[in-house]
Amino acid sequence: MSEAAPLLELQGAAKTHRLDGREIAALSPVSLQVARGEFLAVVGPSGSGKSTLLSLLGCLERPSSGRLLILGRDVSRLDDDQLSSLRARAIGFVFQSFSLLPSRDALDNVLLGALYSGLPAPERRAASLLTSLGLGHRLGHKPSMLSGGERQRVAIARALMNGPELLLADEPTGSLDPAAGDAILAILRELNRLGHTLVVVTHDPRVAARADRVIEMAGGRLARERTGRALP
Amino acid sequence: MKGVQDAVRAALVDLRRDTPRSLLSLSGVVIGAAALTLILAIGGGFRRRILAEAARTGSLQELRLFPERPAGLQPGDAERLKRLPILEEVAPEAALYGELVRSRDGTARADIQGLSGDSARLPRILRGRAILPQEFAQRRQVCLLGSSRLSALFPDGQALGRTLWVQQVPWTVVGVYAPGGPASSSRLEESGVLLPLPAAARLHPGLRTQSLLLRVLPGRVEEASERVLEALSRGDPSRRAMYRLEDWGFFVQERVRRTNLLTWTGSLIALLILLVGEIGVMNIVLASVAERTREIGLRRALGARKLDILRQFLWEGGLLSGTGCALGLILGRALAESACSLLGLLAGEELRPFLHPGLAALALGGATLLGAVFGLYPASLAVRLSPAEALRAD
Q: Per-residue DSSP letters for A140-154?
């Protein structure tokens, strides 16, 4: 666990799914490093393996072969409970469909983020996170009473509950109109500026344009990589 | 604790999501629990009635002494026992079975039982009055007539002040008493005529003392049996074989045991219904797992372990089943109330349902546990997928 080690490192990590007895490659062996504090965008057509890549990085599944190192430590051999605890402590997820529980209000949805990490006094933190994201007046609103952009902000607050170093977002602006999408992007960039490492899977060229680095996936492999921001 | 709270809320959401369907799926548990409550409450009511009756008549504290030889009891036996401090009362009992009884208007076969003047135990008088102490002392030929023999002997129902003949000896009816006899423990439950023992000596063959009813100080029946036999044997152990003691509390407890056995047998059947009902709970949890696959994926992404997810759905099954059981308890209690009124009406006796609160709590806890057990299979499906797979589900 040296400071110099990248936050995330995939070493020849591949994922195959078994379907009707046949092996289907979702991801061919990929090697990739994500530095601490980096904003990485992953682009590519549907079925190109971007979501699988994100699942591997988020420890939502284990690579079929190859390794995932977090801060130089091999986590691909951790058992399910250890991976759960790692997700609870260190990784925040944001999804295209927000994934809020419709029966619970904004505050309770954010509190769900602390349910499995044992965070002390989560109510205060949840309220202050929502307030800082401009939803201080919406704490008691059910998701159905919130706009798409507001829902995604609730989801971001939930992802931030445990103060994770790594934020993973799967098409965070995919369900939003351009204005709302821009607002979410601004929040994500601000979080990145505050030190959160950010990996975003996206179709949205505007999101990719603001990343430190963009990797392009095609057919389950890493097709292209470019660094530097194309737009100011 | 937070996890439990969260599971409770999730379960409530599931119940509300499609209330009619949920209630339909829960109906098996409700009916099973209602049946269980019904049977336990009726059984409990019977048990209570037996014990209350025994307490009222004092039969839990009674011993009956019978002679084991043709000569019968010895003249000094009763006096000897009356000196024992452990006995509250020593009452001679005498009976003639199936005696022909006549009145001017009819005849009937009836069991004749003798009453001693000092007996604390008296029949329940329906009409007229009891036999007075001076009537015992003056050997008056008065009697009490059991209501079950009333219509055969006095078709017009007017018995008070009229005359009965037992073995050609006339007796004036001063009271009519209820069936059940002077005591529920009496073998003359339907006894027909009660005569004062002093006057009954005129009968031939006479109404002889055949047994002694011994009332024992509370809770000391076993000790008293030993004392009684000791007193009667007068230092000669071989005399013990000349007497037989019957413990009437034992018969009461036997009745309670029989009632319990029937109650438990019925409960077993109700439990079977409850078990079938739990399949409905399993069904709800199964649907819930299927509908919430994405939520499971989300929770796993937020750091839930498999055990957390498992626990959530086990709680859901348990809570659903517990809710169904609570509804069943309320329903069953109401049903027991009506059933007992009906049974009481049919039996001509008052019967009140009784469900011990501890038993109700046990049923509630048991059903909750059972729901969790039946939630095991659906819950295991919930953790079968990897978090990534669960998140990909539609």
A: T--GGGS-HHHHHHH
For residue A185, give how far its alpha carbon lies from the nearest alpha carbon of chain B (Å). 22
Label residue B221 by pLDDT band (50, 70, 90): confident
Q: Do A95 and B305 touch (CB under 8 A)?
A: no
The reply to whether B179 and B287 lie within a common domain is: no
Q: Strands of A73-74's sheet, edge to edge?
A: A22-34, A8-19, A65-70, A73-74
The 3 state secondary structure assigned to B2-41 is HHHHHHHHHHHHHHHHCHHHHHHHHHHHHHHHHHHHHHHH
Chain B CB contacts of A103 below 8 Å: 9, 13
The reply to whether B109 and B201 lie within a common domain is: yes
Q: Is the residue at B65 inside a domain?
A: no
- The one-character DSSP state at B239 is G
Chain B environment of A162 (Cβ under 8 Å) = 303
Nearest chain B CA: its distance from A61 CA (Å): 6
Contact at CB, B295 and A101, closer than 8 angstroms: yes
Stated pTM of the model: 0.74
On whether residue B371 sits in a domain, the answer given is: yes
ipTM: 0.93
* Nearest CA among B122, B297, B285 for reference residue A58: B297
- Could you count the other beta carbons within 10 Å of the beta carbon of residue B358? 8
> Rounded to 5 degrees, what are φ and ψ at B179?
-60, 165
Q: Does B387 touch chain A (CB under 8 A)?
A: yes
**Domain limits for position B200:** 87-216
Contact residues for B169 (Cβ-Cβ < 8 A; gap 6+): B141, B202, B203
pLDDT tens readout for residues B120-174: 566 778 889 988 888 888 989 999 998 888 888 899 889 899 999 988 889 999 9
- Three-class SS state of B188: coil
Interchain contact, B307 vs A81, CB within 8 Å: yes
